[in-house]
Design goal:
Blueprint (H helix, E strand, L loop, with lengths): L18 H7 L1 H4 L4 H14 L4 H29 L4 H8 L2 H7 L4 H8 L3 H4 L26 H24 L4 H30 L23 E3 L25 E3 L44 H6 L4 H19 L1
Helix pairs in contact: 1-4, 3-4, 3-9, 4-10, 5-7, 9-10
């Protein structure tokens, strides 16, 4: 269960209202790499964890902390919106970068564009689970695959991207109260980047995973002759100077090879099979009109095509093909 403590994990006290900046903060709340994303990511990874208990416990610890960060940002956004007088809104819009981005010279016009109307119309001067452009938070932002190595690498990336955005937002305000809270967010994300790097290291030390994800596929099922080749697919050969093109591979399973002038490994030109005429797409040559199934506009309710096909529909055709394929496969067994 969760237990709510009324005090915030860290204070969220801006010096003054700033509705334009409140919109910017929405990005690290409801954006792709915002606090809602990492909160939901860590909680679902924890709930789905089938590995050792220490990893599950750690995931739920940090997931719960991210709930606190969602709360802090929501409070900060609400306070930046709270009773913002026109004079304060105008001060917030005097930032030359804001004016340039909005393409306006009239401060009131800039404010109107710079604010999020939903902050007043929908949420009544409160935060929303959306990004800085007003796009709703999306559950597709998270990763909870059941593979801890894959997930922890995602987590390290998400914390890196999120903290990069926090640092940029820090530079976009001179409000000491906002900067104070963001300094805490920066510090916690430093910890979390360290945490995920340490967790990856421990997974490997515990022998649960190696380097490759997944590492449970038998290597005799993998084209290992292509597992460590770097294909040069742009003009020049500068990429051949990198670590990824020379020396022992990171997974310890081979040696990097630089392919300066790669050639296709097949003569397959990727042509699609003939179009099903019942899908009425574009064929390689002219096709006669065709349809199947009952025709309520004919006298007897059927067309000649219907009689020939036994009244089959496009779904019937698909089922026939699937059944035929399953029968042939069963015969091979």
């Amino acid at each position: 269960m969760f237990f709510h403590v009324k005090e915030l994990q860290y204070q969220a006290k801006p010096e003054r209202p700033d509705p334009v900046y409140a919109r910017k903060l929405q990005e690290i709340l409801g954006g792709q790499f915002g606090e809602i994303t990492v909160m939901m990511t860590y909680l679902f990874q924890g709930w789905n964890c089938r590995g050792p208990e220490k990893y599950r416990d750690m995931l739920l610890d940090i997931g719960t902390e991210e709930i606190a960060h969602v709360e802090m940002l929501s409070v900060m956004i609400a306070r930046l919106l709270e009773g913002a007088p026109v004079s304060e809104q105008e001060n917030g819009a005097k930032d030359p970068a804001v004016a340039a981005a909005m393409g306006g010279s009239n401060i009131r016009d800039v404010i109107q564009v710079g604010m999020t109307p939903q902050h007043t119309i929908v949420s009544g001067e409160g935060a929303t689970p959306k990004d800085s452009e007003g796009f709703p938070w999306n559950g597709n932002y998270i990763a909870a695959s059941g593979n801890l190595l894959a997930d922890f690498r995602f987590n390290l990336m998400a914390e890196s991207q999120g903290n990069l955005q926090v640092s940029r937002l820090y530079e976009m305000t001179d409000d000491r109260g906002v900067r104070d809270m963001l300094s805490f967010n920066l510090a916690r994300d430093y910890m979390h980047q360290n945490q995920w790097a340490a967790a990856i290291e421990e997974l490997q030390a515990d022998g649960l995973h190696g380097f490759i994800v997944p590492d449970t596929i038998p290597l005799d099922r993998v084209r290992m002759d292509q597992a460590h080749t770097f294909w040069n697919l742009s003009m020049g050969e500068d990429s051949g100077q990198g670590r990824w093109a020379n020396g022992a591979s990171i997974d310890g399973l081979g040696t990097f090879q630089y392919v300066a002038s790669p050639e296709p490994l097949s003569n397959d030109q990727g042509m699609a099979p003939p179009a099903d005429p019942l899908l009425h797409g574009s064929a390689k040559q002219p096709m006669p009109p065709t349809s199947r199934g009952p025709n309520p506009r004919s006298e007897n309710g059927e067309t000649s095509n219907s009689k020939k096909s036994g009244g089959k529909t496009i779904l019937d055709t698909a089922v026939d093909k699937l059944t035929s394929s399953e029968t042939s496969t069963s015969g091979m067994d």
